[in-house]
Write a structure and sequence with these properties.
CATH class of the largest domain: Alpha Beta
Shape: rod-shaped
Number of helices: 8
Low-confidence stretches: 247-251
Strand order of the largest sheet: 5-4-3-6-7
Distance between the termini: 60 Å
Largest sheet: 5 strands, mixed
Structural class: alpha/beta
Order of helices and strands: HHEEHHHHEEEHEHE
Mean pLDDT: 81
Helix content: 25-40%
Strand content: 15-25%
Radius of gyration: 35 Å
CATH superfamily of the largest domain: Ribonuclease H-like superfamily/Ribonuclease H
Oligomer: single chain
Length: 251
Amino acid sequence: MDKDIRESIALARFQIISPILAEPKRAQNDYFREQAGKEHVFARYGTRRISVSTMKAWLRAYRAKGFDGLKPKTRTDSGRPRRLDDETIKTIGIKCKAYPYWSAQLLYEDLKRQGLLADPPIHYNTLLRLVKEHGFLSTGSRGDVRKAFEQDNVNELWVCDFMHGPGVKSAGRSVKAILCAIIDDHSRMVVGHAFQTSETISALTMVLKEAFLTHGICKRLYVDRLLSRRMSHFCNLKKLKIHSSFSRLVP
């Protein structure tokens, strides 16, 4: 609750109790009972009826602390949802640091799935206000390119390619380190990889064997055009019911 609203509420309370500040208790009780039958308008709260005991409490607060005593009390846990403790908020902050470009909706669904949003879970807007106040999520756009996953399940499509690295020493001579890697299109997990000194089908065969033994057989394998021609001579993937493709996916 901001300062202006608190002062506006305090002023409305003062207007109610001010006529009887100097009156005896009997006159005060009669006045309070009369006011209790009326409706009063307050900032933020709207129109409502006030009980006699509440107005007496306002009068005591005013005599003890003056006008400030009529202002609504501020929450000691301001800025924090009441059902989330400090440890939970710290956990949310760590999650946001790990995934800084997640949307608030994705963060909410993940935290809710893990049971970190109390029981019953706090509302989405409450979490949104929390991450904004603490600056947990980045408001900038990503600098790298992100594309949607192509496949619905793991092992439906593996993508293979070679990457040329720096020069290294091998058997007393300088050669180029070449990485052969295979990535699963759905999970983005590297299912097989190895460094070789040449871009050959034998290097791919070794990496494929590693991937098959660890993660099972994929349904489709995507390679570049040149490697696809070589594979037709060295790898009979049809026996494993694997479709190889290049440029476009073969159903």
